[in-house]
Amino acid sequence: MKVILMKDVPKVGRKNEIKNVADGFGRNFLIANNLAKPATESTIKQLESEQELLTQQAEAELKMEEDLITQLDGQEIEIKTKADEGGKLYGAITAAKLVKILKDKGFTVAKNNIKLAEPIKETGEYDDIIIEMSHGLEAKIKIIVISEEEALI
What we know:
Layout: E1 2-5, E2 18-20, H1 23-31, E3 36-38, H2 41-72, E4 76-81, E5 88-93, H3 95-104, E6 114-115, E7 120-122, E8 124-132, E9 138-147, H4 148-152
Parallel strand pairs: 4-9
Antiparallel strand pairs: 1-2, 1-3, 5-7, 6-8, 8-9
């Protein structure tokens, strides 16, 4: 009996695979427990169209990420924030703050995509900020942190 697995089944196969199984096992276990459905012509065509749609979505996502990385790579972003006279910031710049700053600049990036060794706590230039997307794509940006008092001068 041919079935299409609806979930990963140990020692049988992975989700969306078409498998040949014993009739009793297929009817009494896999289909009865909603782990699989019979592989008819229509269900096979439906599975193929769903996989094609998923492939198209993945390609579109990759293209968007490539465009974003291309735009971000080499960017210099200046951040004005409150700091004392010694250059220590009153509030550290974390990955979450960088996400908000990048969003204000028109770049949509998730917090977990920003690779920051530790929060930025002092004024200065930081050119080791890496934004890493899925598919191994990454961009390097430079952050220039200045105090609000320096910005007025």
